[in-house]
Write a structure and sequence with these properties.
Number of strands: 9
Strand content: 15-25%
Number of domains: 2
Helix content: 25-40%
CATH superfamily of the largest domain: P-loop containing nucleotide triphosphate hydrolases
Radius of gyration: 19 Å
Largest sheet: 6 strands, mixed
Order of helices and strands: EEEHEEHHHEHEHEEHH
Bound molecules: adenosine-5'-diphosphate, magnesium ion
Strand order of the largest sheet: 5-6-7-3-8-9
Length: about 250
């Protein structure tokens, strides 16, 4: 069920609740007073200039950075609980000549089998089932280094969906992906979100697809400067100031 469009207050339907979050790295305060509430089933885009602290916020949510303030998870109708988070990291680069295949990558991530052993049929089938979520069965024997940007993102997405998370977090999944691949990836995220009732938080610099796919946009630069529907945020003064777009209202 998709709860995104019929929640009342925040009290009973918050999926992710970040309250008064501050993060200090290397003696510098990178994030300060960040508040972000996400509801079950929502797709939320996190935008902001380079160095704004977007990746840092995600890493705090993933428990990879120490922070002050609170980060809690709730189910729509249950008590507070630990959610399963799937994470697609920012543009990892693979050597074009690297012999490792998509199958090898999955086997090393989802099983403890040494990579040099032949892969049993059942395990290969498990990997195919994972790749099916991203319509990527045909990629199983391809070398990672030979994948296009969009194909690589789909493979990483399939990995993040095993096991199926409640909250999926992606750090700039659209960078290095061509326009066609972008639409495919966004359609896929939309479909996965509806089918498995998960919430999606993604960092992106591509504002052109926000209105079509995203429920809410949060503009971050050290703290949240604007939050609302894509149109509200893209037309806000805070957005123009953050990206130095001059005074003319679009
Ligand atoms: P964004 O993802 O919005 O581009 P980041 O969250 O990666 O920004 O970085 C925000 C700021 O924090 C940058 O100024 C960056 O240099 C700094 N930073 C990121 N990671 C560390 C770290 N581990 N130690 C010190 N400073 C860091
Ligand atoms: Mg980043």
């Amino acid at each position: 069920m998709n709860h995104a469009h019929h929640h009342g207050g925040c009290a009973d339907s918050c999926c992710l609740q970040v309250t008064d979050l501050s993060v200090r790295l290397g003696g510098e305060r990178i994030l300060e007073g960040v508040n972000l509430h996400m509801h079950c089933g929502q797709m939320v885009a996190l935008i902001g200039p380079n160095g704004a602290g977007k990746s840092t916020l995600i890493k705090a949510i993933l428990g990879q950075h120490p922070y002050e303030g609170s980060i809690t998870f709730h189910r729509s109708n249950g008590p507070e609980q630990k959610l399963r988070i799937g994470y697609v990291p920012q543009s990892p680069s693979f050597d074009r000549a690297d012999p490792i295949t998509v199958l090898d990558l999955f086997v090393s991530c989802i099983s403890s089998r040494p990579a040099f052993l032949p892969v049993p049929k059942a395990l290969r089938q498990t990997v195919l089932d994972c790749l099916k979520h991203v319509r990527g069965e045909n990629l199983i024997d391809k070398r990672i280094g030979a994948l296009s940007g969009g194909e690589l993102q789909r493979v990483l997405l399939a990995l993040a969906l095993e096991p199926m998370p409640n909250l999926l977090i992606l750090d700039e999944p659209l960078s290095g992906v061509d326009v066609e691949g972008m639409a495919l990836l966004m359609d896929m995220l939309h479909e996965i979100r509806n089918r498995f009732d998960l919430s999606i938080l993604m960092i992106t610099h591509d504002f052109s697809m926000l209105s079509k796919y995203v429920d809410r946009v949060a503009l971050l630069d050290r703290s949240i400067l604007a939050i609302g529907t894509p149109s509200e945020v893209l037309h806000s003064d805070a957005f123009r100031e953050a990206f130095h777009l001059g005074g003319e209202k679009a």
